[in-house]
Amino acid sequence: MNAAALACAPSGTSWNGISWADAQRRVRGLQARIVKAVQEGRHNKAKALQWLLTHSFSGKVLAVKRVSENKGKNTPGVDKVTWNTPGAKIGAIASLKRRGYSPLPLRRVLIPKKNGKTRPLGIPAMKCRAMQALHLLALEP
User: What one-character-per-residue DSSP string does 66-80 give?
Assistant: First the structure.
């Protein structure tokens, strides 16, 4: 399958109709190619493969799944948005684009400690978490 087919979502895709095994296989294959290119010293090739992974539909799907189906999925960021419905998750996949993206500020929450004091915790918005997860897929191998 070529880069153009991997980069865009199939028309009429639903969240429940996504083939997770195929998406995982495509991402693992690209990650293996990135590792092989770095080991061979072909850094330009590795950079091109990372670009392909961060712009692929499979990578975006796995990034959205990672942030929307974990323990912190109901914790909104500063924009008060959570991705609870399948429609919101599909919309999130479409919104993961580098052009026009600027990270939102962190939502600061004070967490109590054992000694009675508090410590700050920064909570990013869902879109920022998904973007971080997407780039982690390209850097992880």
Answer: HHHSSTTTT---TT-
